[in-house]
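dude i think i finally got it to work??
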Amino acid sequence: MDNEVYYERLRDRYSSIPDRQPFKLPIDQLADVLRCTRRNAQLVLKKLCAEGYIDWTSGRGRGHQSELTFLISRRELLFKRAQNLVLRENIREAWQLLGSLEEQAPLREQFAAWLTEKFGVSTDKQEKDILRFPFYRPVYHLDPAHVHRRTEAHWIKQVMNTLVDYSQQDQQLRPQLAHLWEANDDYTEWTFYLRKGVRFHNGKLLSAQDIVYTFNRILLESSSGWMKSIIRNLYVSSKLGITFQLTESNRIFPNLICTERYSIVPEGWTGENNAMPIGTGPFQIVKNNDSMLTLEANEYYFDGRPYLDRIEMWVWPNYDGEMFAVTPDKDVQLLYSEGQMDNGINPTLSQLEQGSVYLSINRRKNNILQDERIRRAIHLGIDRERMIEELGGIRQQPSNGFIPSINEHVEHGTDQRDKDRLDLARHLITSSAYAGETLTLYTYEMRSNEENAIWVREACEKLGLRIEIVVLPIEQLSRIENRMEADMILAGEVLGEQPDITLIEMYRDSNGYIRNHLSADQKKALDERISYCLRIADASNRMAILTEVQEQLKSSYSLLFLHHNLQVVGHHRSLDGITMNAWGKINYKNVWVRP
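look at this
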């Protein structure tokens, strides 16, 4: 049993005794309080002395009383218990313990300061480099077939591989699990040839059957579903060869299967324990719970062993506020936090996010939003520049589309222009059939989303529109009944290493917000343009077509763009090999510690 438990029993029994005031009592009474034998009680008391909980002098001989002094206050005891929970990797329980007090703020600040010192790179007794950093939530849902969020997609990339990879730096495909791939003359059939000797983290040797199993599982289970319209059949065509037969000519099929959704899993893996996926990647997950996500280096990774030996992501629900409150100038060694900017600290790395926060208008629901005047009024009523100024954080630039452009950053209009714009928006509403109906604005749980939703609601109310905000976990918002019930959805799309491929998948995703809000005619026109994209080899030409699709959605006010975010990462100068990926995260495989 832990020493603090024994100490708490003593402190509860003798609660009237002040700290550091000696008092006498028989050893038999102490044994009774500690719920053990006289001999064991003496051992426990010696341990408590050694740990600095008490000062204890044993009475010599029977009938002589012991002398006991409490050296630790109840506050110190609680703090020590929280520390011990962290050292046993029960971080969530530590926060719950501190949160159970009515007046816990000073203690939480003290605890946050202590916890912050644990982050960064350390070397254990075996000379292994361990990178430890905080994150605001646990990361459970790591089944690539059902990935919803960028953080999950990022971690999947650290532990799993796809057949083919895309190098953003070189802007071309490169081998990964497949060392070669080729197509027939009309690009309706693609064959991939696997590397030899690749093993999964559980020791299983990678085979062609694993590829067939992975893709069949995606076709059957994935919430995206659109790949079913592309793959007609796949089969093992040789010992290390897999052939995909497609429904139509597709020159970019290898590009499509570079994304994390198509990460390869071993045959038989069902995703039941999706917090602990089995992959072939540079790191292996060894722990994933409410308190931390822990990865260890794959010693036999086919593309070279990582330099870091272990990565620990500690779950700290409010680290943005608490960390900077106690250590505003802390030179942390890795930090994903917009709190850096809020506290006047310049992040080490930053980049404008490829993608946008947007409002998707439900064109399939029979309501007042079918009237273009209402949709246009909402567009006019949202002052993007003012939204960025008032909400701050990583909101960086007004958005006019998914790809940021220098032309989007415009100066403020004059007061008269703002008044004219709002007057026009109000006129559009009064000239419509709007009669005070309440429109629902859905978004998923995330602080910035909820702040944006409140700001948009207030902007709409100034026009005379009534808005009700509904905030759901992202998994619930992905359910078709919730997407279709929403009059509007506020969300964001972050484009991956291949922006055009991300957009193609987003527009074709049967589980996506935008596609499900399109009218039947809009969806038909969209699918025709995407089908054309699949036959085009040049990425810039594909992007031109996708830009046309975007402009059509904008011109009908079906999709209202809001702002682009700034991605920020803080890291210590001793960490080298660090580059930001498209999700604003770090690929840990090449990170190393400079002496």
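Residues 135 and 315 are 5 Å apart (CA to CA).
im so relieved honestly
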